[in-house]
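Case 431 in the screening queue. Each case pairs one protein sequence with one candidate compound; here the compound is zinc ion. For every case the pipeline is the same: read the inputs, emit a complex structure as tokens, and attach any notable structural observations.

Predict complex for case 431.
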Amino acid sequence: MKKRCVGFLLACVMLLGLLPMAHADAASLNATPNLNLTYEFSDSAQAGTIRYVSQLSASPNFHASYWNDYVDAAGWECYTACISMALSSVGADATPGDLGDYWNEQQYTGGDPFTTMAWDVRPYDATFLQRSFATSMDNLLSHPGSYSPPIIHLTTYSERGHYVLVAGKLSENTYLVVDPANDEPWKITIENNVATYIRHEEERTEELEMAVQYYRSAGALAQTPSAPQNVPAASIASAGHHADGTTCSSAAMTDVPAETNWAHAGIDFCISKGLMNGVSATQFNPSGDMTRAMLVTVLYRAAGEPDVSGVENVFEDLGADWYRNAVAWAYKTGVTSGVSSTRFAPSDQITREQLVSMLYRYRQLTGATPSEISALDNFWDAGRISGYAMEAMRWAVTNGLITGTASDTLSPGGAATRAQLASILMRYMSL
Ligand SMILES: [Zn+2]
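Case 431 output:
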């Protein structure tokens, strides 16, 4: 044990020469094991550069400007700092401020921060993968600049755990760790997915969960502006028009992203067609959950709200009236058969495969024959698609209704947000 500690200290001393300090010599950092990543503060993100910003306000690496208005959160937003560093390494300029907006809005209090990240990440066309640590490291090493360093969650250090970035491989089973709550990089030993980490002189060992890694699909970030963006929706809403002079249907909604954002056109479309409404006069809640009840209501509207009087309700769990007619219609027409013979699960968040299945059945209902259907061989998780949804998924991918959450990932069981549904519906209606 003693010998091991000495070895660790020696390694730390050796690491001091590689410290990711703000003004460190980039050339020395480019030597192995740093994987051609440099660690430096910059106002603009570049693929291959980690903007390392310690959360410790006394640190020379700490830059208050990086945190925008969320500087007060810097002391505990450990995962936010990691997310931001990981994004910056694939050239996506998402600052913790952008993320902070989201956490505030959602009154985030716990759970897995990554599963609700899509909204923050998607504007930059970077998305995340959850893979084993070994696979994530393989990605990082074999595709420099395309995959971020993996973020791993060390659960034993605090109530909500501790997120660190694994930036490089030092030797077999030993890795360089950038830890926003430390002022220096550390090393971690990972063998057979078991991590041994020393922090504050405490050595702890734990089994790793899946690592999170951001991914940049080829060329997807070409239009990423170099400065933090997220143009406030209000600046567009006040004008009520798009840059080209056309009327903006979502102008009254203060939480709809700017028109340059992928989500904007779909939201405009659904509002203008009366398919979706805001959750209030000024809020669309783009990142909000899309429930099964909401989806059948949207499809019912799209179908022109046919009369359903006399249609028997077979479900025992319809708790509210606002979706009752829509569910009756959807059941009668075969758009849905419920989650069982007696349950519709109206409040469950709809999954991507449930969503495309309902759209597919609706498509068949309207008489249109599904066009050519291709295989899903390019997606590693195609085997996770439920049997009932397989044909619908093929159809949806073939017709561009949904794209992967990464170039090789379909996430059939992943949740769909209101903004995603709006985009899908827009594409669907133009088929
Ligand atoms: Zn608009």
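Case 431 observations:
- The longest strand covers residues 162-171.
- Strands lie at 38-39, 49-50, 126-131, 151-154, 162-171, 174-178, 186-191, 194-199, 202-207, 211-216.
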